[in-house]
Amino acid sequence: MKRLSAATLAQLPGQVLRPAYEPRSAAIGVVHLGVGNFFRAHQAAYLDEAMNDGATGWGVCGVSLRAPGTRDALAPQDGYYTLIESDGGTARARVIGSLRELLVAHEQPQSVVSRIADPATRWVTLTITEKGYGHSGAPAGAEPAARLDATHPDIAHDLAHPDQPRSAVGLLHAALLQRHRARLGGLTVLSCDNLSCNGDLLRDLLLAFDRIRNTGAHGWIVDEVCLPNTMVDRIVPRTGQAERALAEELLGVTDAWPVITEPFRQWVIEDRFAGPRPALEQSGVQFVRDVRPYETMKLRLLNAAHSTMAWLAVPAGIATVDQAIATPAWRDFIQAMWREEIIPGLDADVVEAAPAYCDSLLARFANPGLAHLTAQIAMDGSQKLPLRILSSIRANLLRNLPIDRLSLVVAAWIRYLEGIDEQGRAYAPDDPLLPQLQPLARERNAGAAVRGMFTDIAVFGDLAGNQILAGRTAHWLARLRQSGSRDVVAHDGLRDGLSGAH
């Protein structure tokens, strides 16, 4: 069967949407670091719509930091790929044309640096996951130097070899330095990862990196580079053979790297830019003064619920989110956690909107068309736990609110890291800190396991010595090991007035 490409675009069925512009002549104005499925279902689609509406100069150079898989799959397709929106009943296909160039940073770092430094580049966007930033975990408000983990292998490499950067921070800094020395105008850099005040964090990391390098560009970065905070939302599973088969059925040609997603999407950006921007508000992008209320609600409600289900589900052998939320006890547990332990700790300006938002989340989680794997969501928990779960626990302890269900989630994460499911079968947890955390998680005494895990300050911060949280987490870890996720959630996790709640 023929493959999706510029040559086969005109042969697609009439119901398949395709670019209204000529992609091959579209000028590149955006460099994106981290060309995964989320970017291709989210930012690339928004930019494609802007180009359909006549915006010029917003084509994308997509950069994979390490793996060449996306480049190898899409280069023979002239950068085209299929975006499939599924609500579980119908599937709608659209060909995206905004991805005009594909680079792999570890193969050609100077090409990436040159593309970012090019005067035509207006934006750099990032979806490199929480672990891709090389940050120390120090909170917002700390000195920039305290937020950069200079011992991180990639950051340390880039400080020692700035001409061959391999981290996102190193690549960005090298390009900004070139722009500074060429007396070019500034740049807008948009982090689109689930990190609190992601733009502020990235700014601090770049400034700390520059201070260590002592290049003299510090003031220029402060004055000329805009790093708005952003919030993004769309559920995007990994691509597998089923998604490829669906794309082939809808298009009548082969697509090596389609992406499937839900109809819902959201992009909120603080309205401060170093130069022009496309009229993305026509596609529903929200430009706001302060993104933090949106970010907090999403992290503590959507992302927290996703991680909760994943860490409970993987050891229990539940493969997808829709299967987990279809279990009445699990659905009730998530709703009770939202209602009693998360929403009361939110900022007052989002509390009123939270219940309706939660109702919409339940419908999105139940979408069978996505088959979102719990194993995918469970990965990188040491990076996700602080923002998704510990932030609510910290707020509740300060306000004397309950933390019992939230502490069960902490225990579920520890149980997930053990790597042995409830049938005694081994699986491979995916976490950047796994070598140091798994031996602690496998300590057979639940109290000792929790005490060991809580010594990791990078994960638990000021909660590392909290005896209330440690005690409740140890209780739940013992129960999960004894009875399994299904039984604990059904029989213990739903009771009102749980012992030791706060």
Describe the structure.
The protein is α/β, with parallel strands linked by helices. A 6-stranded parallel beta sheet has the order 5-2-1-6-7-8, with helices on both faces. It has a 3-stranded mixed beta sheet with strand order 4-3-10, sandwiched between helices. Helix 11 runs antiparallel to helix 13. It starts with 27 loop residues before the first strand and ends in an 11-residue tail after the last helix. The C terminus is likely disordered.
Which stretches are poorly predicted, pLDDT < 50 over at least 5 residues?
A: 496-502
**What share of residues is helical?**
40-55%
Mean pLDDT: 95
Termini separation comes to: 62 Å
Shape: globular
Number of continuous helical runs: 23
Counting helices, strands and paired strands, the structural category is: alpha/beta
Largest sheet: 6 strands, parallel
Strand order of the largest sheet: 5-2-1-6-7-8
Count of β-strands? 12
Radius of gyration: 23 Å
Strand content: 5-15%
Question: Which helices and strands occur, and which strands form pairs?
Answer:
Layout: E1 28-33, H1 37-41, H2 43-52, E2 59-64, H3 69-74, E3 81-86, E4 91-96, E5 99-104, H4 109-117, E6 123-126, H5 144-147, H6 153-160, H7 168-181, E7 187-191, H8 198-213, H9 218-224, E8 225-226, E9 230-233, H10 241-251, E10 259-261, E11 266-270, E12 286-288, H11 292-316, H12 321-326, H13 328-342, H14 348-351, H15 354-365, H16 374-378, H17 381-399, H18 404-417, H19 434-441, H20 446-453, H21 457-460, H22 467-483, H23 485-491
Parallel strand pairs: 1-2, 1-6, 2-5, 3-10, 6-7, 7-8, 11-12
Antiparallel strand pairs: 3-4, 9-11
Helix pairs in contact: 4-7, 7-8, 11-13, 11-15, 11-17, 11-18, 17-18, 18-22, 20-22, 22-23
